[in-house]
Design goal:
The protein is α+β, with helices and mostly antiparallel strands and about 450 residues long. The chain contains 9 helices and 15 strands. The strands form 3 sheets. Strands 9, 10, 11, 12, 13, 14 and 15 form a 7-stranded mixed beta sheet that branches. It has a 6-stranded antiparallel beta sheet with strand order 4-3-8-7-6-5. A two-stranded antiparallel sheet has the order 1-2. α7 runs antiparallel to α9.
Length: about 450
């Protein structure tokens, strides 16, 4: 499950990827909104400071004796006195003929030209490019003062009071907040993804238990799904158990019919064989030969049918060592007159994924064939190669040429009639191994004779 969780076709991978994508999108959107809200709050606070400076500037302004405006220092922010301090003011006359305006000492000899202005009540907000390429926030307001230099009552002059501040502090605070927001949201996103991963792992545990239970059935360690499952999976487990039981019942019926057919055919064939031997002559010999052919074919296809049925049964599990040892003892007794030694070695933890009689059919045919052609010795070895069981049977007999090995191993032809047997042993081995998705081949042996290699599915001992 841990390895499959990263595959694109994995249910866990889809759930985790979907949750991770939506989590990241949500955090990104939330971070964008929070960043904008924080900058807006910082800008509002900065605007409040500029409005306070504007109020101080207006409070410090008084009409001059000869017209114009004079400023009282006690109401002014002292940053207006430092050159390029980042806080500036500018007073510009709007009434034609009115005395000239003023600029703060901090502007030195520069002026401010607002852009992107937006009027909000009495104040106008905008931006401007300040000294030393500063990005300025600008507030401006129209203010009217009486003109004391003229004798007429009610004469006034209009001025624009402008206060500008450097936005560097707002940018710095916003950048610091964004940095904190990014790494904190990154940690939060990572934590959420880990939480989703753990949630998916825990949520899919019943499916992993179901897979392990099916694996135990396939390996022959159990006959049905065992244990309790959640309400969502319990009906599936019940249906699988019913399917397994139904499959086993069908296979059992089929094998019973095959066995009955075998017994039914053997009796008529035995009668025909006896009658042909008693009759003698050409007709008797011909009948006897055909009876032998029929027997061979019946044995062949009955073996295939029996193996095909057992392949479809879940839970088959056969230890290999007892089968090999039993066959070695029986064959040494059968060939005791020729002093044939069967050297069989097999680890005790090998298990064939199939029925014992099928393994006996394949291994018995190969070992019997080796004993028939061996001079003194047959060597049998069984070993595990990954998920495969490799069985080799070698003899020290005359062996076969590559062409003859192909004819015998591929087409099942019988090359020598002098040795007893039906000649279908290797064909039966080939057919049954194919039913188990196995492999069978003939090679030259180091002992001088023939080497038969049989590869079958293996079950781990644990």
């Amino acid at each position: 499950m841990a390895t499959n969780i990263f595959r694109l076709n994995s249910l866990a991978a889809r759930l985790i990827a979907t949750a991770a994508i939506w989590t990241m999108l949500g955090l990104a959107l939330g971070g964008f909104v929070l960043s904008g809200a924080f900058r807006s709050a910082a800008l509002d606070n900065f605007d409040s400071t500029l409005r306070a400076d504007m109020d101080g500037l207006i409070a410090a302004a008084e009409p001059g004796e000869n017209g114009g405006i004079t400023l009282q220092d006690r109401f002014l922010n002292h940053q207006f006195d430092r050159v390029y301090s980042g806080l500036y003011y500018q007073i510009k006359p709007l009434t034609p003929g009115a005395p000239g305006g003023q600029i703060s000492r901090s502007l030195f000899d520069r002026g401010i030209v607002p852009t992107s202005e937006e009027k909000r009540g009495a104040l106008t907000y905008g931006t401007a490019q300040g000294p030393e390429e500063q990005n300025l926030r600008v507030l401006s307001q129209r203010v009217e003062f009486p003109v004391t230099a003229t004798p007429a009552q009610g004469d006034t002059a209009a001025y624009t009071f402008l206060v500008a501040g450097d936005m560097a502090s707002v940018d710095a605070v916003s950048a610091a907040f964004n940095s904190t927001l990014i790494w904190s949201f990154a940690l939060l996103g990572l934590g959420l993804v880990i939480a989703v991963f753990l949630q998916v792992r825990v949520g899919l545990l019943p499916l992993r238990r179901l897979k392990d239970a099916l694996h135990r059935i396939r390996d022959g360690k159990a006959q049905r799904l065992e244990g309790e499952f959640p309400a969502e999976i319990a009906p599936l487990a019940a249906e699988l158990n019913s399917l397994i039981e139904h499959s086993a019942e069908i296979v059992m019926r089929a094998r019973t019919h095959v066995s009955n057919l075998a017994h039914f055919l053997k009796t008529p064939l035995s009668v025909l064989a006896s009658e042909s031997e008693a009759e003698g002559g050409v007709l008797g010999d011909q009948v006897r030969k055909q009876v032998d052919v029929m027997r061979r074919q019946v044995d062949h296809y009955l073996a295939r049918a029996r193996a095909a049925g057992s392949v479809n049964v879940l839970g088959n599990r056969t230890p290999v060592q007892p089968v090999i040892d039993d066959l070695a003892r029986v064959l040494m007794r059968i060939h005791a007159g020729r002093d044939i030694v069967v050297d069989a070695q097999c680890p005790g933890d090998l298990y064939f994924r199939g029925e014992r009689q099928d393994l006996e059919e394949m291994a018995g045919n190969l070992m019997d064939n080796g004993c028939k052609w061996a001079r003194t010795r047959v060597r049998v070895r069984a070993m595990a190669d990954g998920a495969q069981l490799v069985l080799t049977v070698e003899d020290d007999g005359p062996g076969l040429s590559p062409e003859d090995r192909g004819r015998v191993g591929t087409r099942g032809e019988r090359l020598d009639e002098s040795v007893p047997g039906s000649g279908l042993g290797l064909a039966i081995v080939r057919d049954i191994s194919k039913l188990y998705a196995g492999f069978f081949a003939l090679e030259a042996s180091e002992m001088g004779g023939l080497k038969a290699v049989l590869i079958l599915p293996l079950i781990a001992s644990s």
